[in-house]
Specification:
Sc_DH/Rdtase_CS, KR_dom, 7 strands, Rossmann fold, Ketoreductase domain-containing protein, seven-stranded parallel β-sheet, alpha/beta
């Protein structure tokens, strides 16, 4: 009886496993990105952690992932770190090339978690052109470049998955977020249309739109009073946690999420 129950449980959870899959996670060493990288690795995926700037957080993350999974049956590294500016097409191509070369050629999953936000939260009338360009360069153009590459390079056997990141703030009309919310609205539209354009490839495309989540990005530029207000507005009485977001990405990347397509999933606890 115990063996039968164990086998039934294994069968039920198998679709959530990602053994044999190769994933690229942009912004993979940041708050949500690092949680996603670790979670996908825990499900069995090989993960290329894309970062820009200081390499130490990415190297530390990759070292931790590889140490945790050092007893993998094939003995191969579970993660690598790759520096890439996602707003640059040549660097995006190099990122995909590096992931394919490191993990056997096939690519299965793209998670586009890289993002830029102006932590001074200027109103639109005070938003500089440089700030606007920086946010659209990473958030919108970066999503475009990475998704374009993924659409042409992910496997077409039903395992191809693209997961972009929007924000529940798109619909909030919260002052100070005009340019940022506009970039994420662009991400949502691109994702939905791309999912339909990829008809017949077996590749799905969905966006995850987190609400207020306890990351460095969330806390930067906000006072204790600001944070208390966010928490007070939350129906569940708390901010989101990384552990609330990463499993959703894992689900969308797995066989279990294969029937979910062209969706924007607002993972926000009922609030923004």
């Amino acid at each position: 009886m115990a063996e039968s129950k164990t086998n039934a449980m294994a069968a039920a959870t198998a679709p959530l496993m990602l053994h044999g899959s190769v994933a690229i996670v942009t912004g993979g060493a940041g708050g949500i990105g690092s949680a996603v990288s670790k979670h996908l690795a825990s499900l069995g995926a090989r993960v290329a952690v894309a970062y820009i700037g200081d390499p130490e957080p990415a190297k530390e993350l990759v070292s931790g992932i590889n140490s945790m999974h050092a007893d993998a049956a094939d003995g191969e590294p579970r993660a690598i770190a790759v520096e890439a500016d996602v707003s640059d097409a040549a660097q995006v191509r190099a990122l995909f090339d590096a992931a394919a070369a490191a993990f056997g050629g096939e690519l299965h999953i793209l998670v586009m978690a890289a993002a830029v936000l102006d932590f001074t939260y200027p109103p639109l009338a005070e938003t500089s052109e440089a700030t606007f360009d920086a946010m659209f360069g990473v958030n919108a153009k970066g999503t475009f470049l990475c998704c374009r590459e993924a659409a042409n390079r992910l496997v077409r056997d039903g395992r191809g998955r693209i997961v972009t990141f929007s924000s529940s703030g798109v619909g909030s009309l919260r002052p100070g977020y005009a340019a940022y919310a506009a970039t994420k609205a662009a991400v949502e539209t691109m994702t939905k249309i791309m999912a339909r354009e990829l008809r017949g490839t077996g590749i799905t495309a969905n966006a995850v739109a987190p609400g207020s989540t306890g990351t460095l990005m969330m806390y930067t530029g906000k006072s204790e009073e600001d944070m208390a207000r966010y928490i007070a507005e939350a129906p569940l009485g708390r901010l989101g946690m990384l552990e609330d977001i990463a499993p959703l990405v894992g689900f969308l990347a797995s066989d279990a999420g294969g029937w979910v397509n062209a969706q924007v999933i607002r993972c926000n606890g009922g609030t923004i």
